[in-house]
Amino acid sequence: MATARASGSARVQAAAAAPGGVAQSIRIKLRGYEARILEESCEMIREAATSSAARMSGPVRLPTRRKIFCVLRSPHVNKDSREHFEIRTHQRLIDLHNPSAQTIDSLMSLDLPAGVDIEVKL
Cβ(88)–Cβ(64) under 8 Å? Predict the structure, then answer.
């Protein structure tokens, strides 16, 4: 029971430290077809967050989604001859805790590579 009180008081202290009494965080979800470009984007976000003294957790690797397409090699004949193609979507999750205005400005000014989809939740 003592551990529940300790974790509850830690949440209250974190909420009191944030302006307005509510703990603020930004959740950034990155998606892309190439893992290397996704890792480069995560590194750029990490540099922007650490330069403005925001706490960062992640990047957390989320499960890769695979879409597999089965296509006949030739139309009308040879139904047993097929090709399989797949698209892999890699995902990363980054949380920024107690971001400042400078953190948000540096994130907005980032020029991330093409092929990276970004979803930001406050």
Answer: yes
The total number of residues shown for the chain amounts to 122
The Cα 81–Cα 56 span in angstroms is: 50
Task: Provide φ and ψ at 79, rounded to 5°.
Answer: -65, -25
Chain segment 43-95, per-residue pLDDT in tens: 999 998 988 888 999 899 999 999 999 999 988 888 889 999 999 999 999 99
* Predicted local distance difference test score (pLDDT) of residue 79: 84
In this structure, is the dihedral angle defined by the CA atoms of residues 29, 30, 36 and 39, taken in order, positive or negative? negative
ω before 59 within 30° of 0 (cis)?
Answer: yes
State the DSSP code for 58.
Answer: E
Secondary structure (DSSP) of 67-85:
EEEEEESSSSS-TT-EEEE
Distance (Å, rounded) from C-alpha 57 to C-alpha 91? Answer: 15
Q: What's the DSSP call for residue 54?
A: -
First to last CA, the chain: 32
